[in-house]
Amino acid sequence: MSNLGGVSVIFDLDGTLVDSEPNYYEAGRQTLAEHGVPDFSWADHERYVGISTQETVADWKERYGLRASVEELFADKNRRYLELARSSTRAYPEMRAFVELLAAEGVPMAVASGSSPEAIEAVLAGTGLDARLRTVVSADEVAHGKPAPDVFLEAARRLGADPAKCVVLEDAAPGAAAAHAAGMRCIAVPYVPAQADAPEFATAGLLLRGGQEEFTAQVAYEWLVRSAGLS
């Protein structure tokens, strides 16, 4: 048993554990360019942070009036993303340190992500985080993606954990909303700091408004200890 009183920790993947958004953006930009949308910008991409690939491409189809099917767009984007993910995904150093700290304490951990199982596997293997994070849930495996709580509740089920004893780490508003809906506490590390005032983040137990620049393994760990009532 860890020193954290039976707490389990569930990590979002993209933008939380790893800086994969540049790869998602590039995969999306290439896919849209191929389908006749040449000027997809980073600002355009930011509105999709925290939303599943399936929902993203469905919105593209409607927004840009694309002729390709949602399935075709999804396959195109995923293929490009996987190529990028395998070769060039960076884990945030302080998040890696936090995972190691929790592992040393014997804290049960899981990953719950809107990405496909293949994308999650590619990123975890490419960064070496798969050695510590073996319980993995993709939104593809549950009925509803974030902001619905399904993916976090399934992660808790696989860990054999009480949702009320789970803490979620999230970078996006839909994920913070999903954690709240699941009855879990949340450490919010906004990927887009300008979104820190989103109402969904107001439900977080710990909101690091400066995002990854403000996050440290020690700050997160100390908050966990305090919130478990152990300090």
Report on the structure:
It is a single chain. α5 packs across α9. The chain has 231 residues and is of the alpha/beta class. It has nine helices and six strands, in the order βαααααβαβαβαββα. It is globular, with a radius of gyration of 17 Å. 45% of the residues lie in helices and 10% in strands. The two termini are 17 Å apart. Strands 3-2-1-4-5-6 form a six-stranded parallel β-sheet, sandwiched between helices. α8 links the parallel β4 (166-170) and β5 (185-188).
Number of strands: 6
Class from helix and strand fractions = alpha/beta
- Helix content bin: 40-55%
pLDDT below 50 for ≥5 consecutive residues: which ranges?
A: none
State the separation between the terminal residues, measured CA to CA.
Answer: 17 Å
Mean pLDDT: 94
Organism: Streptomyces venetus
Pfam families: Hydrolase
Protein name: HAD family phosphatase
InterPro entries: HAD-like_sf, HAD-SF_hydro_IA, HAD_sf, PGP-like_dom2
